[in-house]
Write a structure and sequence with these properties.
- The chain is α/β, with parallel strands linked by helices and 326 residues long.
- The chain has 2 domains: 62 residues, no CATH class; 245 residues, Spore Coat Polysaccharide Biosynthesis Protein SpsA, Chain A.
- 37% of the residues lie in helices and 23% in strands.
Amino acid sequence: MDFDRLLGLDLAMALPVPQVTSEVAALVRKRHQDRRARRWDAADSIRDRITDMGLEVRDDRPGTTVLPWPAWKHDDGNIASSADVSSRLDETPDLDFTVAIVARRGCEELQRCVSSALAWLGDAGEVIVVDNGFPEECEPVTDKIGEAAEHLRFFRADHFLGSAAGRNVALRQARGRYVVLLDTSVEVTGDLFAALRPLLEDETVGVAGRWGVVTDDMRSFKETESAGDVDAVEGYLMAFRRDVLREAGLLDEKFRFYRHLDLDFSYAIRSCGYRAVIDTDLPVKRHDHVEWLATPPAERERLSKRNFYRFLRKWGGREEFTAPRR
């Protein structure tokens, strides 16, 4: 066994390690039972509790292993939750745009996305980058990004906070009048910010982007290539006014996996009476999505379904969303 392994179930016996409390050991045993019984929601809830204790949870074929976070992740500049950063949303915006880029993996993809955004943003705003638990081998890359630009601010999480929580770090710190959530799979190829401005100045519009989906029944969503109103803007690029964010609220941090988080946020904004629109001429290019490719198919299917059921429980019974779109 690895010298720093704290606890493994159904593995070779090891001497007790003092750092493992009886509470953690009991949680790991219960999670192991839940996983065997395919009680996935219960198992994920326990994982989140252990993570909140500052421990890393790893699953393999024999069972669950708990490890201490590597020492390099515990310096004073790291954050452990979105609440570790103060909110600036009640302050008067002093920039035009805040571009929020959050990543868990994909060093080259992060570099490409950040560089392309900065190239076209100029002095119109800032870029906030959140390292949402990047692997250690990417630390030199993220350090370089953090020191690279005058208009860039950098936050490093000491573990994966969850997809929504990682984005909330950037949203809480946004100084711009307009906020752009940009996925690392997207490359800015032209003056995106000039193109977004007239969309966001329309007070009937709550959220805008390049890609969007429509639905007739809130059960089946399909991507559309027609510009105009959609039921939800896809998370590759979501832009909104700061005052809309304050009204709709931050992202729901129960969405730890990214799938359908964009549906939930789009519907939260639409529930405030705003429209969701896309412009298919926005100057951006979409590349492979590293989070999707890195997640095993069975796992991403399970996590996607769980998020979709959460979305339906929140919005499926609302009459304004079941009526035909105008």
